Amino acid sequence: MSATVRTRGSISRRLTLQLAVIAAFLALLSWGMVRSFSQQAAEQTQDNILAASATAIAEELRSEAGRIRLEIPYAAFSMLGAINEERVFYRVLSDGETLTGYDDLPVEQGARINGGVAFDTLSYRGDDVRVAMVQRTVFASERAVRVIVAVAQTRNAVDAISARISRAAALVSLAFFVLAAVLSFWAARVSLQPLTAITQIVSRRGASDLKPFETTAPQEIAPLLTALNRFMERLSSSLDRSEDFIAEAAHRVRTPLTTVRTQAEIALHSVTRSENKEILRRVIRAVDESSRSAGQLLDHAMVSFRTDKLTHSDVDLAELLGDVINTLRPTADMKDIRIRTELPSLWIKGDAILLQNALHNVLDNAIKYSPAESTITITLENRGAQAGIRVCDQGRGVDGADIATLTQRFRRGGNVGNVVGSGLGLTIANEVVHAHGGRLEMTGAQDGPGICVTLLLSLR
Ligand SMILES: Nc1ncnc2c1ncn2[C@@H]1O[C@H](COP(=O)(O)OP(=O)(O)OP(=O)(O)O)[C@@H](O)[C@H]1O
Ligand SMILES: [Mg+2]
């Protein structure tokens, strides 16, 4: 069972979000800056015109017969009209007294005006107005008269201009943000592309493929692949060690068992008392069972390792079956069992050693569980996408036991009687056919009590 990895968050989403937040902040900042610059520029323009207008009026100041006289030039107001339909006010003060203009226009007469132009924003007649004040000293009857020219204009146009620019800037900033968000999403995906590619390479690997990954990876991912390669190297050598260990252990168990069996056989022939003979027969049987178990365990371990590293070479099933039959023929001959075959040439891609092992176990069962002088029929047929190998015997049958339980490890049927076995043969055959993309079927023989075991193997 593979452990499920709990996912928490997504790098791609986090990256997109972070980049989008940065983009939003920059968009807001740029909007604020454009807005403030546009406001300043509009105000500056109005200030310049107001100052020019006030200066133009101040230029016309003169004294006549000890009095200050002023003829307001038309141009002074026409330049103000250039801005918009704004209301314009003016006031000229001579020594604090209104010479001409709007009497109630507030004019700051303090020191701020000294030496140039002063500006002020104030509320006048229900509107916000901007005032430019210019101070001049005019000599009348040899007396220096301080004259202040104040020109004011409503600020509606300035506000409208900066509002328009601010709106346009907001739209541009919004568009910039949307574009940046889309680009962030794209950038996040592109940045994670190598990770996706490596994930695909890893998941395409067969369960048994422990070869190191030889692929180029970005600097950040390379350590992960290196760690993975080291891990697989350790796993592979640990598997190899286990395989060697099992082979060694089985060998060490079987060798003394063979000796014990030989000694017990010799003893069996030399003792005369029937109870002693019985004891020795039981010893021989126990040794046979142990030896069979050790052999089958070794085969099962070998099958597990090989199915993990499955090779796909061309295998001639007819030839393979011929070899298996030849190996087991002496055992069949001892029981006078006839083996009938129908073996047309049929090739599959697979692991010959594993397939041989599986077939050996199935045929071994057929011989083991069949009575003397019976017939075993082995047929090989092409079933479209699958190759079918069918082994039918005239033996004792399995008496309703289902294939799922008999293929479990160490599971033996209730029909075994005194037949030696470990309950691993069908487990091995089943694992081999599954590794080859096939399945194992067990059905009752058409005539008589025997069974047919069919191995279905994928032809592709
Ligand atoms: N041809 C057959 N006829 C009757 N019963 C069978 C046949 N093949 C398998 N069985 C039943 O299925 C069981 C499982 O078979 P399996 O080959 O796995 O174990 P085994 O033959 O008992 O032991 P071993 O591991 O030594 O082969 C057997 O114990 C037997 O009951
Ligand atoms: Mg068996």
Automatic annotation (TrEMBL):
Task: Tell me the InterPro entries matching this sequence.
Answer: 2CSK_N, HAMP_dom, HATPase_C_sf, HATPase_dom, His_kinase_dom, HisK_dim/P_dom, HisK_dim/P_sf, Sig_transdc_His_kin-like_C
Q: Which reaction does it catalyse?
A: ATP + protein L-histidine = ADP + protein N-phospho-L-histidine
Where is the protein situated, by its record's location annotation? Membrane
- Transmembrane regions: 15-34, 168-188
Reported EC number(s) for this entry are: 2.7.13.3
Give every HAMP domain span.
189-240
For this UniProt record, the keywords arranged alphabetically read as follows: Kinase, Membrane, Phosphoprotein, Transferase, Transmembrane, Transmembrane helix, Two-component regulatory system
Q: Which residues form the Histidine kinase domain?
A: 248-460
- What CDD domains does the database record attribute to this sequence? HATPase, HisKA
Keyword Oxidoreductase belongs to the record:
no
Molecular function (Gene Ontology), one example: phosphorelay sensor kinase activity
- Among the entry's GO cellular component annotations, what is one? plasma membrane
Looking at the keywords, is DNA-binding present? no
Annotated protein name in UniProt: histidine kinase
Organism from which the protein derives: Saliniramus fredricksonii
